[in-house]
Structures are given as C-alpha cells and as structure tokens.
Design brief:
Layout lengths: L1 E12 L2 E13 L4 E5 L6 H8 L7 E6 L2 E2 L5 H11 E5 L10 H12 L4 H10 L15 H13 L5 E5 L7 H15 L5 E5 L3 H4 L4 E6 L2 E2 L1
Parallel strand pairs: 3-8, 3-9, 6-7, 7-8
Antiparallel strand pairs: 1-2, 1-4, 4-5, 9-10
Length: 217
C-alpha cells in the first residue's frame, strides 16, 4: 500500500540547512495501522506531509499503490489526494459555512464516490444523527473531530493519514474518538498512519515506530 524508500528532507534556516529526515524507510501493508512517534521537532509531520504529497523529498521515493509521488505534478497530486487518501488533523478543518451533513459529503463528492448508504453508516456509528443540521461552531471539540473522521472516511480512501487527531481532546474524549475510528477501520480495507506523541494512543494501533535523528527505529 505504502512504501517510503531512502527519503531525505532538509529546510533552509537563517543558520543554514537543517536536516529533518535522513534516509527514512517505511512499508505499510493494506489494512494495517501504524503509529508514528517521536519528540517534538523530530520530523513526524514533515514525513506525513511528504506522504500526503503536500511537499516533495530532496531524495528518495514514495510509492502509494501504483503511484510514485515525487514524480507527479501538482495537478496529479491534487487528484490523488481527492481520490486515494483521507486526511485528519488536530485542527478539525471543517468548512464553517456548511452544515455537518454537507461537510460529510464534501470530500466524497470531490472524489466522485458519494455513497449515501455508507455516509448513513458513518453517521450511525459515530453518533452524528442529531448533529447533521448544525454548523461546526455549534459543536464541541469531540463532536467536530468525529465529523472530521467521518468526512475523511466518506470517500472510502485507501490510505488515512492522521496528524495528532486527538491531541486537542481530553483523555476520555480522545479514547472515545480513537475507539470509534478503529472500529470503523475494521469495516474497511483502509490503511492508517497516525502521528501521535501519546504512548497510550500508539498502543491501540497494530504497529509503532519512532522517528529520531532523522531515521525510524
């Protein structure tokens, strides 16, 4: 499903070049789940952004299925993100002018895979039935994150990338949202890569790796 080979990434700073990733290798099989851990500033989000095609590596390759991301142009990458992956961040990134039901359908319609029955299933499993006519500002943090998860899964993505998706939630709400996410993934072949700083959250996923000094251990 996902193969990262020999990826390097550096950024220019006023003090010179800062090496963030120094030869990262990672393989994820379809339907698997992996927690990406590491200290703040270790490059976890950088790696996730490279895998999402939001940035390109200096060296190395990233394969997702038949796609080799570093060789794709911006239009191809944008289409790949619409149709192949789901993204969930600590900031919920819901569209404030749309009601919950329209936020849920947004990504799936862009991907050309809006399935009302699947959306209804997500609504039921995530307990969103009474929230469909509300706007994001009328929801709690936990409710917004459940909507964000449903939106990301509505298009049935092959790969779900989550960057600290429960980081802004209290422990009880975080546990609830994570449980719902993992239960839903049992119903799909979606592969999950989650950035987290929490050993408690990471323990719930099938695999765990740590990014340190630019490499995975």
């Amino acid at each position: 499903m996902l193969q990262v080979q020999g990826v390097f990434k550096s950024y220019l700073t006023p003090q010179g070049s800062l090496a963030v990733l120094q030869g990262v290798d990672l393989t994820l099989e379809p339907g698997s789940s992996l927690a990406l851990m590491g200290e703040s500033g270790s490059g976890k989000s950088t790696l996730l952004h490279l895998i999402a095609g939001l940035d390109k590596p200096d060296r190395g390759s990233i394969h997702s299925g038949e796609h080799r991301l570093e060789q794709m142009n911006e239009a191809q990458l944008a289409n790949w993100r619409r149709t192949e992956i789901g993204l969930v961040f600590q900031q919920f990134n819901l569209i404030g002018s749309l009601r919950v039901e329209d936020n849920l359908a947004f990504q799936a319609r862009l991907a050309g895979r809006h399935e009302p029955r699947w959306q209804a299933h997500l609504v039921q499993r995530l307990g969103l039935g009474e929230l469909l006519k509300r706007y994001p500002e009328q929801l709690s943090g936990g409710q917004q994150q459940r909507v964000a998860l449903a939106r990301a899964l509505a298009s049935r993505p092959k790969l779900l990338l989550a960057d600290e998706p429960t980081g802004s939630l209290d422990e009880a709400t975080s546990d609830d949202v994570l449980r719902l996410l993992l239960d839903l993934l049992d119903d799909t072949p979606t592969t999950l890569l989650m950035v987290t700083h929490s050993p408690r959250v990471a323990a719930r996923l099938a695999q765990r790796v740590v990014l340190s000094n630019g490499r995975l251990t």
